[in-house]
């Protein structure tokens, strides 16, 4: 198979297909688990794409579902094989949010709201490494550098000349005023943010303090959409020890509506650039903070 096969997305598609076959058979995950003498949680993880799927798993499940078409079985077996390949991020070692990176790598568009920091896809290296070191104070310098390298590698989707990631970002004013590193680092970061916002496929809006309470007050989230219609959208919520992925249509719809409210309440694109320029000048004058 081609080297650009995305194992995360393949695993997710395979899980969706296995769930469809189970539902066609009219079986519950608990019933399948009992037939295969495995835990119900394993079946659930296989179906939601959070666990690697072996060809043996596929063979056993197809047997339970009485799939007689060998072409379907062979196709699913190939997907299982592809899903066990390693994505580009594996070259950087153990990355806690590797599932998210796999989804982001294959996404067609990404909508992000962040109340605290500039989103990773729009960070400079210096800002990223200073932020990582501050957020994870027990992290070794080599690991901070590694995470910074991963962040820059992710940004290639934004910088791509062909089929770039369509990125829409709403950030709280707090993200601009939270000093990460020294004032020159912040000036460079804000200028970079302005530069990136001028790309035709990147939209940046700032939600100023003056807007008061708003629908995103509870925290950061991202909505990923994919080019293949068979891949449902995903809401990603980052956690300290574990992350949350919401894929049910009702959940995605609620977060999408909330995002529309955020976009409506935020400054428009031109106002946002003026606002970021103003904050950068405050850093230069020593009046920011």
TrEMBL record:
Residue span, HTH cro/C1-type domain: 18-73
PROSITE patterns to which the protein is assigned, alphabetical: HTH_CROC1
Source taxon at top rank: Bacteria
Entry coiled-coil feature ranges: none
Protein name: Transcriptional regulator
């Amino acid at each position: 198979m081609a080297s650009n096969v995305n194992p995360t997305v393949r695993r997710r598609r395979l899980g969706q297909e296995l769930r469809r076959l189970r539902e066609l058979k009219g079986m519950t995950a608990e019933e399948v688990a009992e037939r295969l003498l495995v835990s119900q949680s394993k079946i659930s993880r296989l179906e939601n794409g959070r666990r690697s799927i072996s060809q043996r798993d596929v063979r056993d499940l197809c047997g339970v579902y009485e799939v007689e078409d060998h072409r379907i079985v062979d196709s699913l077996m190939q997907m299982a094989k592809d899903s066990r390949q390693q994505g580009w991020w594996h070259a950087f070692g153990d990355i806690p949010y590797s599932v998210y990176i796999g989804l982001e790598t294959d996404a067609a568009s990404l909508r992000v709201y962040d109340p605290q920091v500039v989103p990773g896809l729009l960070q400079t290296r210096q800002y990223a490494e200073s932020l990582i070191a501050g957020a994870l104070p027990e992290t070794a310098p080599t690991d901070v550098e590694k995470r910074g390298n991963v962040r820059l590698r992710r940004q290639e989707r934004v910088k791509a000349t062909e089929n770039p990631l369509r990125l829409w970002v709403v950030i709280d004013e707090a993200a601009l005023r939270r000093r990460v590193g020294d004032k020159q680092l912040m000036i460079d970061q804000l200028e970079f943010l302005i530069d990136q916002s001028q790309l035709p496929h990147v939209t940046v809006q700032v939600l100023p303090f003056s807007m008061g309470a708003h629908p995103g007050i509870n925290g950061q989230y991202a909505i990923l959409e994919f080019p293949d219609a068979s891949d449902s959208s995903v809401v990603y919520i980052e956690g300290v020890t574990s992350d949350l992925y919401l894929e049910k249509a009702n959940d995605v719809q609620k977060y999408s509506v909330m995002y529309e409210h955020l976009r409506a309440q935020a400054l428009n694109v031109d106002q946002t650039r003026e606002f970021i320029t103003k904050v950068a000048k405050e850093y230069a004058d020593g009046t920011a903070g």
